[in-house]
Amino acid sequence: MNIIFKSIRVVNPEQNLDGIFDLWIKDGFIHSIATSITNEEPETRVIPGKDLVALPGFFDMHVHLREPGFEYKEDIQSGCAAAANGGFTGVCCMPNTNPVIDNVSVVELIRKKAENLPVDVKISAAITQGSQGKQLSPFYELNEAGVVMFTDDGKCVTSSEVMKRAFNYASTKKLLIAQHCEDHSLTENFSVNEGVMSSSLGLKGYPSVAEDIIVKRDILLNEYTGNNPYHISHISTKNSVKFIREAKSRGLNVTCEVTPHHFCLNEEFLSSYDTNYKMNPPLRTKEDIQEILAGLKDGTIDCIASDHAPHALHEKEVEFEKAPYGIVGLETTIGLTFTYLYHTNILTLNDIINKLSTNPRKILNLEPIIIKEGNQANLTIVDIDEEWIVDKNQFKSKSKNTPFNGFKLKGKPKYIINKNQIIESTL
Predict the structure, then answer these.
(1) Which residues are catalytic?
(2) Cβ distance 145 to 107 under 8 Å?
(3) Which of 105, 248, 276, 404 is such that its CA lies 20 to 30 A from the CA of 189?
(4) 23 phi/psi in degrees, rounded to 5
């Protein structure tokens, strides 16, 4: 690789860096960053930087790569291709595969398959063996094998006693515990948010209190067991935001994420009975979205994550009640974030960098990205103002289950640079 971006804006709030530079990437490293670079090497590729912004590589900390076991939906290679196409240089994969990621052999399989891909793949493992909510997985052994987070994502650890043991077990090494907050006794066989829409559609509802109960319970349990690092996945309710804000105000070690579909879609979209709007947690009310937007703005919500959940066409094209939960998100997250948060003046560019790059890495205890000469290049390059139409046929993901097909967005991923590779987006 030998590339110069001419007159490109380079931004990294961690360095108080924001300026127009010539950026020279050579052999995977930042060879030079200067106001002007005169290059005598004829093989150097020169890319005009006008309208482009180079940012520390974006990281999606909630992705379902589906391998092993569900490769017909997605696999590690196709998932990473989707991540790169969507502007991400790193992802953390969830453990609800088959077999579940609860032992070192599965971790090693994933690491081996991902090692030469342009996207860094970090691995989460299940809190409990088989994600059955009973016996704890071998945290220490898995952490030594490279696991960065523990979660039964897709399921909640509903037993308070088991969750208390998990916090105690993790606390000796300050291992990160994440939770899918859902009291399953209140949500069995749900299809949509419980409320006016569930009644009018005649579908089983998921009451928002089912999320709120577990959020509050886990905050209390974690405080009781020593204030271990605790992360709440894909929050969707106004009370979740309020509980987390209050916990942070008391100095508790709690972080959280939100998905784009939970800040830009509400339950009213379900009137079409389109199963691409069926997800877990479900789309909530406009009132919930307003509190989520407030939480993004005031810093209560640390990260934006896609919860990329690919499903095959034949699985989604069924009766609403029978369809699986989830949508693909790696290739729409950046566009949705800039459209609904940046161009509406809810978040600044620095805020977006923090929520899509800096904070996920801090939470997962990964090395920060510093854009300076001699460092390895790990960059997401975007055009903040480019308008584009989402076309699911341009996705690199094996699955196309998106509610955003045909949406007009403003802000588009253009390239990623990582591991001595450059990938140009085809979106």
Answers:
(1) 307
(2) yes
(3) 404
(4) -120, 115
